[in-house]
Structure formats: structure tokens, C-alpha cells
């Protein structure tokens, strides 16, 4: 809490139809609104970090607003590493201080209302607002988060399920891909404006962008606008590109954010590379590029080495139930093998593409960590690339050579201190245009030739390669604050 406050002016109005007095103050932690009911003395305080946003009420009173907010989490809950659905609140108020309304205006929710009105006037057959609830993302919070909060926010915004928006609960790992390919892509190509609220981790976005880029775009392609609510495990994109440091779990972005183009990477693989699915029990072919090269688009990261290994090894139902701890548990297993041997030394030739368009090969052919990323954070507190700014589109490479398990733990621990690992002299960190790995790992089963793209795992064949490049095509816009 801060120390100096601006003295608030008391204003009279109503809360849910009852006489009330408001005080709006500016504190070092941001603006704060207090109200007290005249009759009962009931009072509440709405602080910036619990505020979702304020929308004009549907009541026929220009002065009437609905304030959406959440309760401050209990001390015990805020200390938990795993996410807890906050307690949602809303009040309808008149006579609110103008500064508060201006500061908390829910622009994005109001844009959904406008779209609804336009669609209704055009007699659109199907809504172009979609809510996707990825039921198995993270520890399974998407469905309760929708039912306990989002549903009520949409009702408060005067939007009706079926006529204004459609909900889609994922039933399989293909649900998002099917929706994006069969509905969103043709409509985007027809120039239709679409808004998608995605309750998932990075995987839901990866499925969306790969489907939207699976066919050529028309000249009238209209990029769908996506709100990503962090319901996954790492939620790298949401934590790096949108507001997730308050207590609203991304809802303040849903209410108050603005769309911005989402930068992408394209990973190209040698023929024979396969996507591992169903806990690596099955393989699938990747979509081919125009020249037949297997490709996968991402918005977060492409890696090989320790990072890819721990993501791949922990992508099982048994690991997933640990939430974000799953990465730490898998990291220990990879760094301290049960037979007492040192961590694996990854062998391959790594080349970096500079801004002049020249590929330069690294001298080192033994590696522990090779990771190219567009974002700053891979988890809420894990800053892998401290120089990366939200949605700027710069690709950065983080890499280091073999170290013992303790050293890797120490260096990676520095990433939890705001990204201090990049100051360690053994860690390479640079901006680049692309990264290529030519694998020199001969193992039969390809365990050490696994590449992670935004959480998906691709296994490359013996003697194969991967190339990570920035992708210039417009695909989607991400709502950010
Ligand atoms: N009902 C379902 N049945 C099978 N698979 C599902 C179902 N719902 C979601 N999935 C799959 O679960 C995975 C969830 O990935 P997502 O990235 O959203 O979450 P995460 O891996 O927990 O988070 P992050 O990628 O941010 O660490 C996706 O591959 C998705 O296709």
C-alpha cells in the first residue's frame, strides 16, 4: 500500500437502486472508489487491481453504469502457485465520479455490444462472437471461470448466448482447430469481423493461428480479434502481452483492452518431422508449406535442448495436475537423472540469421539450451527474455552450453529474478532474424531431437533440421492493455 492519497470528494448517487455516497481517491497504487449505502451503512472498496471495468448500463439512464470487479483474494490464495477463480461482483450505480468512469471504461466490452447491434441490424444469421472454453487446459479452470464470471459479464454487457455469442466447450484436442478451419477462416476471408474469447493456455492460440494460416488469405481477410484469458499452465503469451498482474485473471483486458497485431514465428522442419500427440503415444504429420516443407506457426517460443525436454516430458495427465509446478518437477528429472549421470549434452550445429540476411554458425556444437522467443515471459514469473516488449515482434535467442545440473538450476533460477540469467557470461542472448539447428543426435527414438513450439512437441528425424523465422503474415489481433 502506498502512503500518500489525494483527498477524495464525496459524491451522492445510488448503488443497485439504494442511496449511496461515493469517494474517489488517487493512491500510489492507483485510483480507488469507495461507496457506502445510506440506509444500512453497507460499504465496499473497489481498487484498481480488482477492477474489471465499467460499462454503461442498459437502463435508460445515461448516468447509470455497471461496475464489474472481483474480491481481493485471501492471503492464502494469493500465495498459492496455482490459479484460483476469484469471487466476481458487480453493482449498478448512478452518480459515479466522472474520473472513475473515464478511468475504468470497458471499451472492449462496449465494442462487443456495438457489434451485436450492427449484426442485429444486418440480420446476421450466426453470431461472430465466440467463447472457447478449453476444458483440459491447465488445471481445468476454464469451465468454472466461464460459468462463475464470464457468463455474468456478458449478461451485464447485454449480450445473449445464441443470438449474440456462441460458446464452445472443447471436447477433444481438435475442437479449436475444427472451429478455426471451418468457421473462423472462411468468415475472415469473407471480410467478416470476428471476436473470440479464448479461455486456454498458449496451445489454444497455437491451434488457432495454425488453422488460420492453413490456406491462402483473400484480399479482404479480416484478422479475428482474440482475447486470451490465461487458463493454461505457462500462459506465456498472456503474461507477456496483456495485463495479468492484477487480480482479475485477464478480465480487465477483456473489458478495457485494445486489439493489436500478434507477431508470429514460422518453424520449418526437414521432411519426416512429426508432431507428437496423446502423451507422445502417436505421431501426426505437420501441415506442409507451399514447397512441401513441414511447418508449424507459433506466437511464443521455439526451443531445443533442456527447455523442449522438460515441456515434452511433463506433457502428461499425471504431470498436468501439478499446474505450473510440472515444469519444475520435470526440470529436476532432466537435470539429475536417476542413474546419477550428468544432464544430457545436446549435439548439433546452430546457426543464427542476422539483420543483414546472413546465417552465421556458432562455434559451439554441444548445447544445453537453445531457445528463440518473441515474448518476455514463459510463465508469470519466469522472464526468459527481459528485453522483449509486449507484441513488438522481435525474435531473441537465449542459449548456453553444457553445465552440470546444479549450475543449470542456478542459471535458470536467475530467470525468476526478472531475467538476470542473461547477465551470466555463459549465457548467450541476442536479437536475431532466425535460428537454425542441424541435429547431430543419432539416438534411435529421437528423444534428443524434440523441438518445442509454444508447448507442442515435434520430433525431427536423424540428420534433420529445424529453422525458426519471423513470419510476416497478418493472422490475428490480440487484445492487450
Ligand atoms: N476436452 C479435451 N480433450 C482433449 N484435449 C483437450 C480438450 N480440451 C483441451 N484439450 C487440449 O489440451 C491442451 C491444452 O493446452 P493449453 O496450451 O491450452 O494449456 P496448457 O498446456 O495447460 O497451457 P500452456 O500452453 O499455457 O502451458 C491443448 O492441446 C488442447 O487441444
Keywords:
single chain; 481 residues; alpha+beta; PH-domain like; Rossmann fold; Tumour Suppressor Smad4; eight-stranded antiparallel beta sheet; seven-stranded antiparallel beta sheet; 24% helix; 33% strand; binds adenosine-5'-triphosphate
- In the CATH hierarchy, the third-tier topology of the largest domain is known as Tumour Suppressor Smad4
How can the largest sheet be summarized?
A: 8 strands, antiparallel
Overall 3D geometry?
Answer: globular
Q: How many DSSP helices?
A: 12
Q: Low-confidence segments, ≥5 residues, pLDDT <50?
A: none
**Gyration radius over CA:** 24 Å
3D architecture notes:
InterPro entries: ATP-NAD_kinase_N (IPR017438), Diacylglycerol_kinase_cat_dom (IPR001206), Lipid_Phosphate_FormReg (IPR050187), NAD/diacylglycerol_kinase_sf (IPR016064). The chain has 481 residues and is of the alpha+beta class. The chain folds into 3 domains: 9-104, PH-domain like (Roll); 107-256, 3-Layer(aba) Sandwich (Rossmann fold); 264-472, Sandwich (Tumour Suppressor Smad4), CATH 2.60.200.40. Helices cover 24% and strands 33% of the residues. It contains 12 helices and 30 strands. The protein has an 8-stranded antiparallel β-sheet. Strands 4-3-2-1-7-6-5 form a 7-stranded antiparallel β-sheet. It is globular and about 75 Å long. The model has no long low-confidence stretch (mean pLDDT 92). Bound molecules: adenosine-5'-triphosphate.
